[in-house]
Write a structure and sequence with these properties.
The structure holds two protein chains of two kinds. By secondary structure, chain A is mainly α. Chain A is built from 21 helices and eight strands. Chain B is mainly α. The chains are: A mainly alpha, B mainly alpha. At the A-B interface, helix 1 and helix 19 of A face helix 1, helix 7 and helix 8 of B. Chain A: InterPro entries: HtpX_protease, Peptidase_M48. Chain A: This is Peptidase.
Chain lengths: 535, 371
């Protein structure tokens, strides 16, 4: 298919989207007219309102002729004066790719690099370009790899036939956005319905009546039906344009390999999914560790710590790199599976550039430390920025753990509160175990069907893991409250609690003590001893 | 006006279709219910010839056992269920004195099953006699049963992660408990190792580990029936081995054993475990007839009080019946009638029904031949 034909198809598909909107509106208007003519006024008025509500997202879809001036993603815009080396690199790459360099560079806080263009008149007239560059990406890539990623992104603008690809991209975005509007409305309607029913239930409960299951089933169903029509169109659209977008990705990869070197391009492709997964893990396990306790890592470390973690976990990452996704990440993803792309690049002839630019990509920044700190100011919300800063990572860990243990609420806490109608404390639990009521208490834990059907020994085995975990946490909380617990911080492993040794100097075995307390014949003596040793 | 009709048709037709669909479902349900009801009326009726021989209908067949339990064992089970461990302890001590390992493992299997449900009596026994080898043995085996109770009998697809996790956690404990039972066992007692085969089967011990276990057993008791039965299960295709490994194991056991040891049952069991054909042709070959002949001679020469002899008789009755040797089959059926807790019936959905069906076929053929 020639470039012209592809362009025509892109135009037809986009036109089809607008046609769909017009037809739907005509249909709604037609129904309204029928109602006006033949239905009693009381019914008609109600249905007018419904059709008007349904029309809103359709109209919105129609009039979003241009992609909204995309809100610039949250990030740190850097001028040429700020980052001369980065700008020079980007300019040089754009030049070698054979396209215009971006007018703005914005540093972001994700594992991503993207070039966007505010094209005008359906993408027929060029507009200013913006490069989004994730600092976490720079923390994980070498300079050669980063050059390859940037060359790929710029490469999308180099192929002359991709001017009209903007049309395709626009169409995709348009259809997806309209679907999103409908679903958002459906969700809102469902949420309102849910709130209404829950309120009703709360009233019924207050009066001591049986409450009904909350059912949001029907609410929002009309919106979802409309969304389905658009989803059907979207599927057609994506199928028709997929091969083109895939070809564009391969072409951009080839351009990247030519400019940045074959090996750097292949290894960057392998690296990005790994960095993405690692960054998710880092944000959950390290950066936001203190969020419950209102604690932030030291200044510059919110994203800077990612680099430390990557260094410490090299071995783990090496194994991840060898596993490539062979499936596209979603059926709507325009990118071919990573495995395909890597194989295509790796089958190119060797270019002898494997040793080029092995330095860290972060070195392209004039003052990485300062940039990491400034990035925090732009991407963290005001609320988060008001958190207090920990002096260092171990302090952050200790603070987070102490706060977490102080507000501990395990399933066992809830079961105990329910069973005793009293505050769920460790002394109360130990007393109850000593009174031989542990297994009756365990019946109040959240149980699977199999566990609640089990009796005697089998039941005890089903609940033992939950009892063990909860009781361990309660014991740790007790020690933590008495400031007897220390935590070992590590970039490589999960945090480890350290208990003070027993008075005779032997290491404390919390697991064994807890195990005895939840044994078939529970014995709380070791756990009591462990707790009282340290008063 | 025509518009109204169009709208009405648009609304009405789907409703009508829905109504018809429900009507169809109701009629189908009613028909099925009626059919089921009519099936119930064709209930099993004990043929007069079988009744004349004193044979029992399915509802009077005991599904939990292959034969009446020895009085001592039955009493021990009753006492254990009532919380009294003393008779069990006495029984286990007695098997050591008599060096009756076959009875020891058989009693262990029964009492461990009781302890897997409720082990209060076992705990009392352990407290009273901390290093009792019998208690250690029952403890380990009961943990194996407990693991299976947690896992449930359903296929992997219908078993939850929680069940599998519990199964492996508990079964791993049974390994340590078997090691302890082996350390406490009286000299020459293979029982802890026999029990450990079921741990091996569940945890998937490597073959090398199984062979090590097997040497411990055969050094102590070369022709122990339950050991061979358990190990054969391990070597079966459905567990940790293959058809070839299972058949070789069974053939070796039968070839080396003296007459009366009942080891000739295992080639038949290996055949039974791996026979996937739908017809009885595979059970009528000269080879299988020869296996049955060997097992018949073995059973005839065995000690009549061998605790596993009834199991072999059940198997013989089944194959003799399939081979149209009804006279011989009936002889075995009569010896075990009243109990169906054995292979091959145990594997069937309705063990008692299947037992009675084949037994009655043999009875009818014998009567027809003589009449």
């Amino acid at each position: 298919m020639g470039a012209t034909l592809r362009a025509v198809r892109a135009l037809v598909l986009l036109a089809g989207f607008y046609l769909l909107g017009v037809v739907l509106l005509a249909l709604l208007a037609g129904i309204d007219w029928l109602l006006y003519r033949y239905a009693p006024a009381s019914v008609a008025v109600k249905l007018y309102i419904v059709s008007a509500l349904l029309a809103i997202p359709v109209v919105r879809g129609l009039f979003m002729l241009r992609t909204p001036k995309d809100e610039e993603m949250a990030g740190l815009p850097v001028t040429e004066a700020d980052e001369p080396e980065l700008w020079r690199t980007v300019r040089e790459l754009a030049d070698r790719v054979g396209t215009r360099a971006p007018a703005r560079i914005v540093l972001t806080a994700d594992v991503n690099a993207a070039v966007s263009e505010d094209a005008r008149l359906l993408g027929l007239l060029p507009g200013p370009r913006r490069l989004y560059l994730g600092v976490p990406l720079m923390l994980g890539l070498t300079q050669a790899q980063l050059r390859s990623v940037l060359a790929h992104e710029l490469g999308h603008y180099a192929n002359s036939d991709t001017r009209l690809a903007v049309l395709t991209v626009r169409g995709r975005a348009q259809v997806l956005r309209t679907i999103a509007h409908f679903e958002e409305r459906a969700d809102n309607t469902a949420a309102r319905e849910r709130a209404r029913q829950e309120k009703k239930n709360a009233k019924a409960e207050a009066r001591g009546k049986e409450t009904q299951e909350v059912d949001e089933g029907r609410a929002g169903i009309t919106y979802r039906a409309m969304a389905k029509i658009y989803i059907a169109y979207a599927k057609l659209y994506f199928r028709a344009t997929l091969s083109v977008s895939r070809r564009q990705e391969y072409a951009a990869d080839t351009a990247a390999a030519r400019i940045a070197g074959r090996d750097a391009t292949a290894s960057a492709l392998r690296e990005i999914p790994v960095l993405d997964a690692a960054f998710g893990f880092y944000m959950g396990g390290y950066a936001t560790l203190g969020s419950e306790a209102g604690l932030l890592p030291p200044r510059g470390e919110v994203f800077g710590g990612f680099g430390r973690m990557l260094t410490a976990r090299q071995l783990e990452l090496a194994t991840l790199r060898t596993e490539l996704a062979t499936e596209p990440s979603s059926p709507y993803d325009s990118h071919p599976p990573i495995a395909d792309r890597v194989h295509r690049i790796e089958s190119l002839p060797a270019d002898g550039r494997a040793e080029e630019a092995q330095g860290a990509a972060l070195a392209l920044l004039a003052a990485p430390e300062r940039t990491l700190a400034a990035l925090e100011d732009t991407v963290l919300t005001d609320e988060v920025r008001r958190f207090s800063r920990a002096g260092d990572w171990p302090e952050l860990l200790a603070g987070a753990m102490a706060a977490g243990l102080a507000s501990l609420n395990t399933p066992l806490h809830r079961a105990l509160a329910f069973y005793t109608k009293d505050a769920p404390t460790l002394p109360a639990l130990l007393k109850l175990i000593e009174d031989g009521q542990l297994w009756q208490l365990a019946r109040r834990l959240p149980l699977s069907d199999q566990a609640s059907a089990a009796e005697g020994r089998a039941f005890r085995e089903f609940v033992r893991p939950a009892l063990h975990d909860s009781l361990s946490s309660m014991a740790l909380a007790e020690l933590s409250a008495r400031a007897l617990l220390s935590w070992e911080f590590s970039w490589e492993r999960a945090a480890v609690p350290h208990l003070p040794p027993a008075p005779d100097g032997t290491p404390t075995d919390l697991d064994a003590a807890v195990g005895a307390a939840v044994a078939d014949i529970p014995d709380t003596a070791p756990l009591r001893a462990l707790l009282t040793h340290h008063i | 006006m025509i518009i109204i009709w169009v709208v009405l048709a648009l609304v009405g037709l789907p409703l009508l279709a829905l109504g018809l669909y429900f009507l169809k479902a109701i009629v189908q349900g009613a028909v099925e219910g009626w059919r089921e009801g009519s099936e119930e009326s064709t209930e099993y009726e004990l043929p007069a010839e079988a009744a004349a021989l004193g044979l029992l209908p399915p509802e009077r067949q005991n599904k939990d056992s292959s034969a009446p339990l020895p009085a001592g064992l039955a009493a021990a089970i009753t006492a254990a269920k009532a919380g009294d461990w003393q008779p069990t302890a006495a029984l286990f001590d007695e098997t050591v004195a008599a060096r009756a390992w076959e009875r020891r493992t058989s009693a262990c299997e029964r009492l461990a099953d009781v302890a897997a449900e409720d082990d209060a009596w076992l705990l009392a026994w352990e407290t009273a006699r901390p290093d009792d080898p019998g208690a250690a043995l029952v403890r380990a085996r009961s943990t194996v049963f407990l693991a299976w109770n947690i896992r449930g009998g359903k296929r992997a697809k219908y078993t939850t992660g929680e069940q599998f996790e519990g199964f492996h956690r508990v079964l791993a404990r049974s390994r340590e408990e078997h090691a302890r039972a082996a350390a406490l066992a009286p000299e020459g007692d293979p029982s802890p190792y026999v029990g450990e085969i079921w741990t091996a089967l569940g945890l998937g011990y490597p073959h090398a580990e199984m062979d090590r276990l097997w040497k411990e057993i055969t050094d102590r008791a070369p022709h122990h029936y339950e050991a061979h039965f358990s190990a054969l299960q391990y070597w079966c295709k459905k567990w940790r081995g293959s058809e070839q490994l299972a058949r070789d194991f069974a053939a070796r056991a039968a070839a080396q054993a003296p007459l009366g040891s009942l080891m000739t049952a295992f080639p038949l069991i290996a055949h039974f475990e791996h026979d996937e054909s739908d017809s009885a042709d595979a059970d009528r070959t000269p080879e299988v007839r020869a296996l049955v002949d060997a097992a018949l001679a073995d059973a005839a020469a065995a000690d009549p009080s061998h605790p596993r002899l009834p199991e072999v008789r059940h198997l013989l009755a089944y194959y003799l019946c399939l081979q149209d040797r009804d006279e011989a089959a009936l002889e075995q059926f009569r010896l075990v009638d009243g109990y169906v807790g054995a292979l091959p019936w145990r594997y069937k959905g309705d063990p008692a029904g299947e037992f009675c069906r084949l037994r009655d076929l043999s009875v009818a053929n014998v009567v027809a031949a003589s009449g």
